[in-house]
## 1
Amino acid sequence: MLLLYLILIIVLSAILTFYRVIKGPSIPDRIVAMNSIGVMFLLVLVLFSYYFERKFIIDVALVFGVFIFIDVLIMAKYLKKSEKG
Amino acid sequence: MINLINILMQIIAYVFLITGIFFVLSTAVAMIRFPDLYTRLHAGSKCLMAGSISVLMGCLVLEGINLNSLKLIVIIIFLLVTNSVAIHVIASFANNHKIKSKTITKNDIED
Amino acid sequence: MIDIILYILIIFLALTAFFMVFTKDMLSSIIALPIFGSILVVIFVILQAPSAALAEAVITAGLTTGFFVITINKTEMQND
């Protein structure tokens, strides 16, 4: 039961971080906030794996971390031309 | 005796979890309050990694020695390698676009 | 208690979708797309469907975002 309160605090901190995605002045601010939200939801997945007693969710968390990393790399490589300034 | 060791492991695991969640919450506060891009990069790299590794260590103590704990160790090593590379790539991307920091000290002024 | 987390995540999903639709810049809209995917992964895990969550993590949070970013890179921005 304590585990659910910890998950609730992580979800609320993800919502607080989403403020920086809305009001970032530049593109790298938004990418940093997106990376932080991705890692926070990875922690939520690992904690849900212990709450539901289903260990398959750890595999989902591992695959999810790999793809968040690939997203950041692709954004930093291909968004170079089209930023305004 | 075994019951006492079990309770002690639970207490250690929850101390790890609460410490990690404090660091994650302070990352969220830092994303709002910090004035500049580069300070936000610092918060998103170090503070978030301290929190997430501490939470995963708590889950590792809660699990014991198992096949699933090996996956948790893989996630810890993967995050240690990956997030550093991602933050470095974002900092290089910001440096190519000439984004300057707001808090400039005397040594940074070159022209 | 699990209901409260589910409702908060659904409200967060709607907030992300409204931000993606109503923002001016197209790049901000693309950056909000992996957040949408990750919230949807957690909702699928809460609703007891981890296989659908695995497929969602591969498709929405990974491949669709990469394709959109590469496609936007090949267009030109029109400054009026």
## 2
Amino acid sequence: MSWLLVYPIVIPMMTAVASYLFRKSPAGRWISLAGTTLLLFASCLLMSDVLDQGVIAAQMSNWDAPFGITLVADLLSGVMVVITAITGLATVVYSFGEIPKRLEQLGFHALLQVLLVGVCGAFLTGDLFNLYVWFEVMLIASFGLLVLGGSREQLDGGIKYVTLNLISTIMFLTGIGLLYGITGTLNMADLHLAVREVENTGLLTAIAVMFMVAFGVKAAMFPLFFWLPASYHTPPVAVSAIFAGLLTKVGVYSLMRTFTLIFDQDIAFTHSILLWLAVITMITGVLGAAAMNDFRRILSFHIISQIGYMILGLALYTPLGLMGAVFYLVHHIIVKANLFFVAGVAKRIAGSTELSRIGGLYAHAPVLAFLFLIPAFSLAGFPPLSGFWAKFIVVKAALDLDMWVVAGIGLAVGLLTIFSMTKIWGAAFWPDHPDGIKPRLSDIPMGHRMALMLPIVALAALTCIIGLFPEPFVQFAERAAGQLLDPSVYIQTVLGVQP
Amino acid sequence: MELLLAVTIGILVATSVYMMLDRNVLRFLFGLVLLSNAVNLVIFAAGRLTVGAPPLIADGAYAPDGPIANALPQALVLTAIVIGFGLLAFALALVYRTYMSLGTVNSDEMRIAEPEEAKK
Amino acid sequence: MQSLILTTTTRLLVALLLVFSVYALLRGHNLPGGGFIGGLIGATAFILYTIAASVDEAQRALRVDPANMAMLGVGVAGLAGLSAGLAGQPFFTGQWFFLFASEGNEGIPISSVLFFDIGVYMAVFGGILTLVFALEQEI
């Protein structure tokens, strides 16, 4: 039993309690900061353990698997928890400079920590029903964060977000019920063995598609993504950033987990659905972005198109494809959260996120312009930044299978991504501000400026590091993909028996 | 018994889908309530139905005597009910706030966050 | 709305419901009951009071902010789970000790499960009341 698996869930939970009780005083935000730092530390410890041992598992309450709830961390879960902690920390620091006292007093930090609980729990659990519970924890916190403050825009976006996500939740639950009905277990490792004995494979495929729809909504896959561009640009930037970075990726992670561990029966059917949905997702996302005229709404649509690449990696179902998906997942969270942070600073100094109403950022805030270019180019896939390697691996995996069309679309979407990044650059950074304002970073008070810029610089540095020294990260992704394709170690660690 | 339950679930789902197709968000929400109850019944039915055999273990025994009802789906349903209750209560409060703030529950008129292309 | 019957019976019922909620909480380990249902019964008492009097009255009678209570409940439940770590056992393993135990008398059993249930009680009680107060206040 390793307690390391419990800490990433318990630490934010306790931090949520403490920061809620102190929400009326400045102590609340410092508790939140300290708790998230501790979370990062704990997740790094977990990661080093996972790197040593491959897979670690813990049985809650001493109930042996498959009867109790198991927490499992393999390489993918481990790295996702670390990234969650990094994004969480960046968001908390950023919120120091952005979130007004009014929202803090409503419990902003507590909700943020509960969100982290849900996300970490979803990454670490080895039980399907438990995954559902963590999804709900995450969902309820995200509902709260999304409408916190209650502006008209937020409520409007919130309705769409809440209703569509509730449908996905119900779909997920139905899938769980039916899967339990035909296999009699909900432990994911045990399910891997149990589904092999199911005779009614048609029903199993139907259930697989149900899960695909449920997680597809969470991941914002075509044609289930409509809630995302409707809502992600409405809340405060710190909230948008952590949503953009983490939430959809939990959906992608769940797809990767279930469609490698449980539903690998009828790959020709399920994974080709995934493949074509991924391709359409990429195209729709990038075309949607091209049609938008708002900084944050462009970024929202880009999330969708990037999700396509990750699902494409999964759908190819080769070692290289999955490796690309894992690499993409990690790279994307960092880059996307960072772009939203930049959008927030731009809004702060230039007064809006609408592209027609801002400008002059390059002339007056060159540092910000430079810091925008790093994640923007990385997102589009310029060498030598992290996005280049991510796209390179996924496209290479498609080429290896002779899927020329898919690979071609992958490259074309990258090109279109540059187009909309240029659009942002050409409207927000290059020309003068339409109202003649000179947006300077020095307009922001010193303390706030530090809080806003620190996460941007740190995440940009991380992007560069991954881009310039991709070797260890690629090797890591390769190992993680290997574990996904051959789950025997995972199953052995969870169940304690040879599969 | 299974057949009866299956038909009930079918009717519930059909009704809820009909309601969820409405533009009125409140009706949509009621449809969602029905749907979540239908799903709870699905889980319940998935655990197989046994009549009159509560899953109780007699004092001093370590295992139940004879076949008993499956307790796990009941636990799952209970959890799902609790979570569903919380989410739907939140959604209801949200719809109410939205109605107060936007003055409409018609989803077609909710275009604040995504305004139609402004004519320049 | 003022109803004489409701106000009068509420006075009786509130006390009864609160006592009953604690009873349900404590018998929960071996018999039907427990923190969740206990919390619901307890919350019912205050909801009744809210309907009979007003949100402000109920809030004054409760004294603490229900939202704080809910979060504190989560904290208590979490700590109860963590207590297993002191004994070197996995998270959430039940820890038992017996008060006033002597030869031939097992004493009063106290367990971390009980504290977990108390946490759940507080969380449910506080959570439901937060929601009801918020809704009542708006409508």
